[in-house]
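Do me a favour: review this protein, sequence plus C-alpha coordinates, and tell me how the chain folds. Record follows.
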Amino acid sequence: MKKRKYNEKHSKKIRKLAAICLLIAIFLSVSTYAWFIGMKRVEVSEFDINIATTEGLFLSMDGSDWTYNLDVNEATQYENNTNKIDGVELIPLSSVGDMDSTTSRMKLFEKSSLTAVPGGYRLLSAQVNNYTDTEDTTGEYIEGDGYVAFDLFVKNLSGEEYYIENNPENEEAIYLNTDSSVTVATDGGVENTGIENSIRVAFTQLGRIENTEAPEAVSTITAMTCADDQEGTYPVTGICRNAQIWEPNDTDHVGNAINWYNTSCLARTAGDVDNDASYTASDDGNTTCNAIADGTAYPTYAISRRIDVADQVNIYDGTAFNTYEANTTDYATYDAAETKTNYKLVDYPYFTDTMKDIAGADRPQFMTLAPNSITKLRVYIYLEGQDIDNYDFASLGAKVSVNFGFTKERYTEDDIDYEGPSTDITPSPEEEAGI
Protein backbone atom coordinates (compact mmCIF):
# COMPACT_ATOMS: atom_id res chain seq x y z
CA MET A 1 0.00 0.00 0.00
CA LYS A 2 2.85 2.38 0.86
CA LYS A 3 4.48 1.60 -2.45
CA ARG A 4 1.24 2.35 -4.33
CA LYS A 5 0.80 5.68 -2.52
CA TYR A 6 4.40 6.54 -3.28
CA ASN A 7 4.00 5.69 -6.95
CA GLU A 8 0.79 7.75 -7.24
CA LYS A 9 2.37 10.72 -5.48
CA HIS A 10 5.49 10.50 -7.61
CA SER A 11 3.47 10.18 -10.82
CA LYS A 12 1.42 13.28 -10.00
CA LYS A 13 4.61 15.26 -9.42
CA ILE A 14 5.96 14.19 -12.78
CA ARG A 15 2.74 14.92 -14.67
CA LYS A 16 2.82 18.52 -13.46
CA LEU A 17 5.80 19.15 -15.67
CA ALA A 18 5.16 20.20 -19.26
CA ALA A 19 8.03 18.21 -20.68
CA ILE A 20 9.61 15.14 -19.09
CA CYS A 21 12.15 12.91 -20.74
CA LEU A 22 12.70 9.28 -19.98
CA LEU A 23 16.42 9.26 -20.51
CA ILE A 24 18.94 6.50 -20.93
CA ALA A 25 22.44 7.93 -21.23
CA ILE A 26 25.39 5.75 -22.11
CA PHE A 27 28.94 7.06 -22.13
CA LEU A 28 31.96 5.17 -23.38
CA SER A 29 35.38 5.73 -24.85
CA VAL A 30 37.27 3.03 -26.67
CA SER A 31 40.27 2.79 -28.94
CA THR A 32 39.67 2.33 -32.65
CA TYR A 33 41.34 1.69 -35.97
CA ALA A 34 40.12 1.89 -39.53
CA TRP A 35 38.95 -0.56 -42.22
CA PHE A 36 42.13 -0.27 -44.27
CA ILE A 37 44.51 -1.01 -41.38
CA GLY A 38 45.39 -4.70 -41.05
CA MET A 39 45.27 -6.39 -37.67
CA LYS A 40 47.30 -3.71 -35.93
CA ARG A 41 46.66 -3.75 -32.20
CA VAL A 42 45.77 -0.54 -30.42
CA GLU A 43 45.89 -0.12 -26.65
CA VAL A 44 42.46 0.00 -25.10
CA SER A 45 41.58 1.43 -21.72
CA GLU A 46 38.43 0.75 -19.77
CA PHE A 47 35.44 2.89 -20.62
CA ASP A 48 32.41 4.00 -18.65
CA ILE A 49 28.79 3.23 -19.40
CA ASN A 50 26.28 5.06 -17.24
CA ILE A 51 22.53 4.81 -17.65
CA ALA A 52 19.90 6.99 -16.00
CA THR A 53 16.15 7.34 -16.28
CA THR A 54 13.13 8.84 -14.55
CA GLU A 55 9.49 7.95 -13.99
CA GLY A 56 8.12 4.70 -15.40
CA LEU A 57 11.27 3.15 -16.81
CA PHE A 58 13.63 0.96 -14.79
CA LEU A 59 16.92 -0.60 -15.82
CA SER A 60 18.83 -3.72 -14.90
CA MET A 61 21.83 -5.76 -15.93
CA ASP A 62 20.75 -8.89 -14.07
CA GLY A 63 16.96 -8.88 -14.41
CA SER A 64 16.59 -8.60 -10.64
CA ASP A 65 18.01 -5.32 -9.34
CA TRP A 66 16.02 -2.45 -10.88
CA THR A 67 17.06 1.18 -10.65
CA TYR A 68 16.64 4.63 -12.14
CA ASN A 69 20.41 5.02 -12.39
CA LEU A 70 22.72 2.29 -13.56
CA ASP A 71 26.50 2.22 -13.96
CA VAL A 72 27.20 -0.69 -16.28
CA ASN A 73 30.75 -1.13 -14.99
CA GLU A 74 29.49 -1.41 -11.40
CA ALA A 75 26.07 -3.00 -11.84
CA THR A 76 25.52 -6.65 -11.04
CA GLN A 77 25.30 -8.69 -14.23
CA TYR A 78 23.59 -12.03 -14.42
CA GLU A 79 25.77 -15.11 -14.10
CA ASN A 80 27.37 -16.55 -17.24
CA ASN A 81 26.36 -13.59 -19.40
CA THR A 82 28.15 -13.02 -22.71
CA ASN A 83 28.52 -9.25 -22.44
CA LYS A 84 31.62 -7.69 -24.05
CA ILE A 85 32.35 -4.41 -22.28
CA ASP A 86 35.78 -4.28 -20.64
CA GLY A 87 38.97 -4.43 -22.72
CA VAL A 88 37.23 -4.23 -26.09
CA GLU A 89 39.17 -3.16 -29.18
CA LEU A 90 36.94 -1.74 -31.89
CA ILE A 91 37.79 -3.04 -35.35
CA PRO A 92 35.99 -2.16 -38.59
CA LEU A 93 32.95 -4.33 -39.24
CA SER A 94 29.81 -4.01 -41.33
CA SER A 95 26.17 -4.97 -40.86
CA VAL A 96 22.67 -4.38 -42.17
CA GLY A 97 21.21 -5.29 -38.78
CA ASP A 98 20.00 -8.78 -39.68
CA MET A 99 19.31 -11.07 -36.72
CA ASP A 100 20.06 -14.77 -36.54
CA SER A 101 16.90 -16.15 -34.93
CA THR A 102 18.68 -19.37 -33.98
CA THR A 103 21.49 -17.71 -32.02
CA SER A 104 19.71 -14.46 -31.05
CA ARG A 105 22.74 -12.54 -32.29
CA MET A 106 23.14 -9.75 -34.84
CA LYS A 107 25.04 -10.69 -37.99
CA LEU A 108 28.30 -8.78 -38.46
CA PHE A 109 30.94 -9.04 -41.18
CA GLU A 110 34.65 -8.33 -40.98
CA LYS A 111 37.35 -7.75 -43.58
CA SER A 112 39.12 -10.95 -44.57
CA SER A 113 41.19 -9.30 -47.32
CA LEU A 114 41.60 -5.82 -48.76
CA THR A 115 43.79 -5.37 -51.84
CA ALA A 116 44.48 -2.13 -53.72
CA VAL A 117 42.99 -2.05 -57.23
CA PRO A 118 43.15 0.70 -59.87
CA GLY A 119 40.01 2.43 -58.60
CA GLY A 120 40.00 1.68 -54.89
CA TYR A 121 40.18 -1.59 -52.96
CA ARG A 122 38.91 -5.11 -53.65
CA LEU A 123 36.96 -6.31 -50.63
CA LEU A 124 36.62 -9.82 -49.24
CA SER A 125 34.68 -10.38 -46.01
CA ALA A 126 33.59 -13.14 -43.66
CA GLN A 127 30.90 -13.30 -41.01
CA VAL A 128 32.02 -12.62 -37.46
CA ASN A 129 31.86 -15.86 -35.50
CA ASN A 130 29.17 -15.27 -32.90
CA TYR A 131 27.15 -18.29 -34.02
CA THR A 132 29.33 -21.30 -33.09
CA ASP A 133 30.64 -21.25 -29.54
CA THR A 134 28.28 -21.16 -26.57
CA GLU A 135 28.62 -20.46 -22.88
CA ASP A 136 28.68 -23.83 -21.13
CA THR A 137 26.06 -23.11 -18.46
CA THR A 138 23.45 -20.95 -20.18
CA GLY A 139 24.05 -21.95 -23.77
CA GLU A 140 24.18 -18.29 -24.88
CA TYR A 141 26.27 -17.74 -27.99
CA ILE A 142 29.59 -16.00 -27.38
CA GLU A 143 30.22 -12.79 -29.32
CA GLY A 144 33.28 -12.32 -31.54
CA ASP A 145 36.03 -9.73 -31.23
CA GLY A 146 36.15 -6.09 -32.21
CA TYR A 147 32.87 -4.61 -30.92
CA VAL A 148 30.92 -3.82 -27.76
CA ALA A 149 27.88 -5.98 -26.95
CA PHE A 150 25.81 -6.19 -23.77
CA ASP A 151 22.36 -7.12 -22.48
CA LEU A 152 20.16 -4.42 -21.00
CA PHE A 153 16.80 -5.17 -19.39
CA VAL A 154 14.18 -2.43 -19.53
CA LYS A 155 11.07 -2.42 -17.36
CA ASN A 156 8.38 -0.16 -18.81
CA LEU A 157 5.59 0.63 -16.33
CA SER A 158 3.42 2.70 -18.66
CA GLY A 159 -0.14 1.41 -18.43
CA GLU A 160 -1.41 -1.85 -17.00
CA GLU A 161 -2.38 -3.61 -20.23
CA TYR A 162 0.09 -6.11 -21.64
CA TYR A 163 -0.06 -7.34 -25.23
CA ILE A 164 1.29 -10.83 -25.73
CA GLU A 165 1.46 -10.60 -29.52
CA ASN A 166 4.58 -9.16 -31.13
CA ASN A 167 3.02 -6.11 -32.75
CA PRO A 168 4.77 -2.70 -32.75
CA GLU A 169 1.40 -0.99 -33.16
CA ASN A 170 0.59 -1.97 -29.56
CA GLU A 171 3.79 -0.37 -28.30
CA GLU A 172 4.94 3.08 -27.25
CA ALA A 173 7.08 5.30 -29.43
CA ILE A 174 10.61 5.93 -28.15
CA TYR A 175 12.71 8.82 -29.46
CA LEU A 176 16.47 9.24 -29.55
CA ASN A 177 17.44 11.99 -27.17
CA THR A 178 18.60 15.17 -28.90
CA ASP A 179 21.73 15.29 -26.72
CA SER A 180 22.96 11.96 -28.09
CA SER A 181 26.39 12.32 -29.67
CA VAL A 182 29.62 10.62 -30.67
CA THR A 183 32.81 12.69 -30.32
CA VAL A 184 36.55 12.24 -30.02
CA ALA A 185 37.39 11.29 -26.44
CA THR A 186 38.86 14.12 -24.39
CA ASP A 187 41.12 11.61 -22.63
CA GLY A 188 43.39 9.98 -25.18
CA GLY A 189 41.54 10.90 -28.37
CA VAL A 190 43.06 12.80 -31.29
CA GLU A 191 40.89 15.35 -33.08
CA ASN A 192 40.53 15.97 -36.82
CA THR A 193 40.91 12.35 -37.93
CA GLY A 194 37.17 11.73 -38.34
CA ILE A 195 37.11 8.32 -36.63
CA GLU A 196 34.00 9.36 -34.69
CA ASN A 197 32.08 9.61 -37.97
CA SER A 198 32.26 5.85 -38.58
CA ILE A 199 30.71 4.68 -35.29
CA ARG A 200 27.40 2.80 -35.35
CA VAL A 201 25.17 1.88 -32.40
CA ALA A 202 22.68 -0.95 -32.97
CA PHE A 203 19.74 -1.88 -30.75
CA THR A 204 18.14 -5.30 -30.96
CA GLN A 205 15.09 -6.49 -29.04
CA LEU A 206 15.21 -10.21 -28.29
CA GLY A 207 12.07 -10.85 -26.24
CA ARG A 208 9.82 -9.66 -23.44
CA ILE A 209 7.48 -10.80 -20.70
CA GLU A 210 4.72 -9.10 -18.76
CA ASN A 211 6.01 -6.93 -15.95
CA THR A 212 6.37 -8.85 -12.69
CA GLU A 213 8.04 -8.47 -9.31
CA ALA A 214 8.29 -12.22 -8.76
CA PRO A 215 11.86 -13.30 -7.88
CA GLU A 216 11.32 -16.63 -9.60
CA ALA A 217 10.82 -14.80 -12.92
CA VAL A 218 14.46 -13.67 -13.03
CA SER A 219 15.70 -16.84 -14.70
CA THR A 220 13.10 -16.37 -17.43
CA ILE A 221 14.04 -12.71 -17.89
CA THR A 222 17.77 -13.30 -18.29
CA ALA A 223 17.33 -16.38 -20.47
CA MET A 224 15.05 -14.70 -23.01
CA THR A 225 16.03 -15.27 -26.63
CA CYS A 226 14.34 -14.74 -29.96
CA ALA A 227 12.26 -17.88 -29.33
CA ASP A 228 8.59 -17.42 -28.51
CA ASP A 229 7.52 -19.47 -25.46
CA GLN A 230 3.90 -19.13 -24.34
CA GLU A 231 3.84 -22.36 -22.31
CA GLY A 232 5.92 -21.37 -19.30
CA THR A 233 4.86 -19.76 -16.02
CA TYR A 234 5.98 -16.42 -17.45
CA PRO A 235 5.15 -16.50 -21.18
CA VAL A 236 7.86 -15.04 -23.40
CA THR A 237 7.06 -13.06 -26.52
CA GLY A 238 9.94 -13.59 -28.92
CA ILE A 239 10.73 -10.38 -30.81
CA CYS A 240 14.01 -10.72 -32.75
CA ARG A 241 13.45 -7.66 -34.92
CA ASN A 242 16.24 -6.49 -37.15
CA ALA A 243 18.34 -3.91 -35.37
CA GLN A 244 17.61 -0.21 -35.34
CA ILE A 245 21.03 1.31 -36.07
CA TRP A 246 22.01 4.87 -35.24
CA GLU A 247 24.52 6.69 -37.45
CA PRO A 248 25.87 9.74 -35.63
CA ASN A 249 27.62 12.61 -37.45
CA ASP A 250 26.07 11.62 -40.77
CA THR A 251 26.89 14.94 -42.43
CA ASP A 252 30.40 15.36 -40.97
CA HIS A 253 33.42 14.51 -43.14
CA VAL A 254 36.94 15.68 -42.31
CA GLY A 255 39.17 17.01 -45.06
CA ASN A 256 41.59 14.08 -44.84
CA ALA A 257 38.80 11.57 -45.46
CA ILE A 258 37.66 13.55 -48.49
CA ASN A 259 41.21 13.77 -49.83
CA TRP A 260 41.73 10.02 -49.39
CA TYR A 261 38.54 9.34 -51.33
CA ASN A 262 39.47 11.79 -54.09
CA THR A 263 42.86 10.14 -54.48
CA SER A 264 41.81 6.49 -54.46
CA CYS A 265 38.35 6.33 -56.05
CA LEU A 266 37.81 6.08 -59.82
CA ALA A 267 34.53 5.63 -61.65
CA ARG A 268 33.92 1.93 -62.37
CA THR A 269 32.44 0.74 -65.66
CA ALA A 270 33.06 -3.03 -65.82
CA GLY A 271 32.99 -6.17 -63.68
CA ASP A 272 36.68 -7.10 -63.41
CA VAL A 273 37.61 -5.34 -60.20
CA ASP A 274 41.38 -5.74 -60.78
CA ASN A 275 41.49 -4.52 -64.39
CA ASP A 276 42.61 -0.98 -65.28
CA ALA A 277 40.11 -1.01 -68.13
CA SER A 278 37.26 -1.29 -65.62
CA TYR A 279 37.86 2.26 -64.40
CA THR A 280 37.80 5.72 -65.92
CA ALA A 281 40.26 8.38 -64.80
CA SER A 282 40.24 12.06 -65.66
CA ASP A 283 43.01 13.63 -67.73
CA ASP A 284 44.84 14.78 -64.61
CA GLY A 285 44.62 11.31 -63.06
CA ASN A 286 42.29 12.40 -60.27
CA THR A 287 39.01 10.82 -59.27
CA THR A 288 36.04 10.66 -61.60
CA CYS A 289 33.84 9.40 -58.79
CA ASN A 290 30.97 11.50 -57.51
CA ALA A 291 32.16 14.30 -55.27
CA ILE A 292 31.69 14.27 -51.50
CA ALA A 293 31.68 17.35 -49.31
CA ASP A 294 31.49 18.17 -45.63
CA GLY A 295 27.97 19.04 -44.51
CA THR A 296 26.22 16.50 -46.75
CA ALA A 297 25.07 13.00 -45.81
CA TYR A 298 26.00 10.05 -48.03
CA PRO A 299 24.77 6.46 -48.03
CA THR A 300 26.68 3.52 -46.60
CA TYR A 301 26.63 0.39 -48.75
CA ALA A 302 26.90 -2.06 -45.86
CA ILE A 303 27.81 -5.74 -46.20
CA SER A 304 24.86 -8.13 -46.07
CA ARG A 305 26.64 -11.46 -46.54
CA ARG A 306 30.04 -13.10 -47.04
CA ILE A 307 31.99 -11.47 -49.89
CA ASP A 308 34.24 -13.78 -51.94
CA VAL A 309 36.68 -13.29 -54.83
CA ALA A 310 34.02 -14.21 -57.37
CA ASP A 311 31.81 -11.34 -56.16
CA GLN A 312 34.23 -8.74 -57.58
CA VAL A 313 33.42 -6.06 -55.00
CA ASN A 314 35.14 -2.69 -54.73
CA ILE A 315 34.61 -0.80 -51.46
CA TYR A 316 33.49 2.27 -53.45
CA ASP A 317 30.80 0.41 -55.40
CA GLY A 318 27.50 2.26 -55.50
CA THR A 319 25.68 5.04 -57.32
CA ALA A 320 26.79 7.63 -54.77
CA PHE A 321 30.51 6.95 -55.23
CA ASN A 322 32.08 5.12 -58.21
CA THR A 323 28.66 4.87 -59.97
CA TYR A 324 28.91 1.03 -60.31
CA GLU A 325 25.50 -0.38 -59.39
CA ALA A 326 25.86 -4.12 -60.08
CA ASN A 327 26.98 -5.00 -56.53
CA THR A 328 24.53 -2.80 -54.62
CA THR A 329 20.83 -2.63 -53.91
CA ASP A 330 18.40 -0.49 -51.95
CA TYR A 331 17.27 -1.74 -48.55
CA ALA A 332 13.59 -2.05 -49.47
CA THR A 333 14.43 -4.51 -52.24
CA TYR A 334 16.77 -6.44 -49.97
CA ASP A 335 14.31 -6.53 -47.08
CA ALA A 336 11.44 -7.77 -49.25
CA ALA A 337 13.43 -10.58 -50.87
CA GLU A 338 12.74 -14.11 -49.60
CA THR A 339 16.26 -15.20 -50.56
CA LYS A 340 18.91 -12.64 -49.69
CA THR A 341 22.07 -14.51 -50.70
CA ASN A 342 22.20 -12.78 -54.09
CA TYR A 343 22.73 -9.37 -52.50
CA LYS A 344 26.16 -8.06 -51.52
CA LEU A 345 26.15 -4.38 -50.51
CA VAL A 346 22.97 -2.72 -49.25
CA ASP A 347 22.21 0.99 -48.99
CA TYR A 348 21.19 0.81 -45.33
CA PRO A 349 18.64 3.35 -43.96
CA TYR A 350 20.24 4.32 -40.65
CA PHE A 351 18.57 6.48 -38.06
CA THR A 352 20.83 9.51 -38.37
CA ASP A 353 21.70 12.60 -36.39
CA THR A 354 19.85 14.58 -39.05
CA MET A 355 16.68 12.66 -38.15
CA LYS A 356 17.37 12.97 -34.43
CA ASP A 357 17.58 16.76 -34.73
CA ILE A 358 14.22 17.16 -36.50
CA ALA A 359 12.06 19.29 -34.23
CA GLY A 360 8.41 19.28 -33.26
CA ALA A 361 5.68 17.15 -34.77
CA ASP A 362 7.93 15.90 -37.58
CA ARG A 363 10.37 14.27 -35.19
CA PRO A 364 10.61 10.55 -36.15
CA GLN A 365 10.44 7.77 -33.57
CA PHE A 366 13.51 5.62 -32.97
CA MET A 367 11.92 2.38 -31.79
CA THR A 368 8.97 1.09 -29.73
CA LEU A 369 8.62 -0.66 -26.37
CA ALA A 370 5.60 -2.58 -25.08
CA PRO A 371 3.74 -1.15 -22.07
CA ASN A 372 3.75 -3.02 -18.76
CA SER A 373 6.65 -5.16 -19.92
CA ILE A 374 10.21 -6.27 -19.27
CA THR A 375 12.21 -6.32 -22.50
CA LYS A 376 15.62 -7.80 -23.11
CA LEU A 377 17.73 -5.60 -25.38
CA ARG A 378 21.15 -6.38 -26.80
CA VAL A 379 23.19 -3.32 -27.71
CA TYR A 380 26.05 -3.37 -30.25
CA ILE A 381 28.62 -0.61 -30.77
CA TYR A 382 31.03 -0.97 -33.70
CA LEU A 383 32.99 0.79 -36.45
CA GLU A 384 31.28 0.64 -39.85
CA GLY A 385 34.08 -0.21 -42.29
CA GLN A 386 32.00 0.70 -45.34
CA ASP A 387 31.46 4.26 -44.14
CA ILE A 388 33.13 6.72 -46.51
CA ASP A 389 34.78 8.35 -43.47
CA ASN A 390 36.65 5.16 -42.57
CA TYR A 391 39.98 5.89 -44.25
CA ASP A 392 43.49 4.71 -43.42
CA PHE A 393 44.61 7.50 -41.10
CA ALA A 394 41.32 7.68 -39.19
CA SER A 395 42.75 5.12 -36.77
CA LEU A 396 45.02 7.86 -35.38
CA GLY A 397 41.91 9.22 -33.66
CA ALA A 398 42.48 6.42 -31.12
CA LYS A 399 39.45 6.94 -28.87
CA VAL A 400 35.85 8.09 -29.14
CA SER A 401 33.16 8.92 -26.60
CA VAL A 402 29.57 7.84 -27.12
CA ASN A 403 26.64 9.43 -25.33
CA PHE A 404 23.10 8.43 -26.19
CA GLY A 405 19.70 8.40 -24.58
CA PHE A 406 16.01 7.77 -25.12
CA THR A 407 12.89 9.76 -24.38
CA LYS A 408 9.16 9.13 -24.69
CA GLU A 409 8.49 12.79 -25.39
CA ARG A 410 8.36 13.94 -29.01
CA TYR A 411 8.68 17.59 -28.02
CA THR A 412 11.57 19.29 -26.26
CA GLU A 413 11.40 22.44 -24.18
CA ASP A 414 12.55 24.47 -27.19
CA ASP A 415 9.80 23.02 -29.38
CA ILE A 416 7.07 24.54 -27.22
CA ASP A 417 8.95 27.60 -25.89
CA TYR A 418 8.64 26.08 -22.43
CA GLU A 419 8.90 28.35 -19.39
CA GLY A 420 8.56 26.69 -16.01
CA PRO A 421 10.28 24.50 -13.44
CA SER A 422 13.22 22.33 -14.38
CA THR A 423 12.31 19.23 -16.36
CA ASP A 424 15.53 17.51 -15.30
CA ILE A 425 14.01 15.40 -12.55
CA THR A 426 16.20 12.75 -10.94
CA PRO A 427 14.73 10.80 -7.98
CA SER A 428 16.49 11.07 -4.67
CA PRO A 429 17.93 7.90 -3.13
CA GLU A 430 15.00 7.89 -0.71
CA GLU A 431 12.46 8.10 -3.51
CA GLU A 432 14.26 5.43 -5.47
CA ALA A 433 14.09 3.15 -2.42
CA GLY A 434 10.36 3.80 -2.12
CA ILE A 435 10.58 5.74 1.15
